[in-house]
Amino acid sequence: MTVEANGCDVKVRGWDRQEVQYVLTKSSARRDDAVINVTENANDSNVTLTVPETDGPAPARGMTETRIEILVPRKSNMKLTTDGEIRVDGVTGNIELNGRDEAINIRDVEGTLKVSSGDGEVRVVGVVVDARITGGPSDGGGTTVALLEKHADARTRVVAVSSVEFATGYR
Question: Are β-strands 155-160 and 163-167 bridged in parallel, bridged antiparallel, or unpaired?
Fold first, then answer.
């Protein structure tokens, strides 16, 4: 699964069906009748969703908020890019998340996880087999990584000022 959704918050949740469903929601404090058309491309092995850039997360961009909520099979590989908030829950596979300044929340994800964030906070809860999180200050801030492991044997190693690498698991 590939998702390109700049100007949009993205929530992905694993479910027990072998299909992908999504709902796009646009909220605005002003009268705005513009329709957002999501581009869908699918074949036997991949689904690609592209959301055209909108006014983006409120309030920074004119009080318009766009959000896409996606249900994917629990065993899914994905690459997701947005400058809005990212939430991923209950997915197993190779997962790459590319964010900018908004929070990235990852819960109950297994497999390989690669996260890149500008200045947003990154929270990881649950079991992650192999992960790499990078981010750095673009405006004097930095990426904050919070490892909220429900099992007590999380190991963390700082590999650079702008990068944290960790592996978690349980016995």
Answer: antiparallel
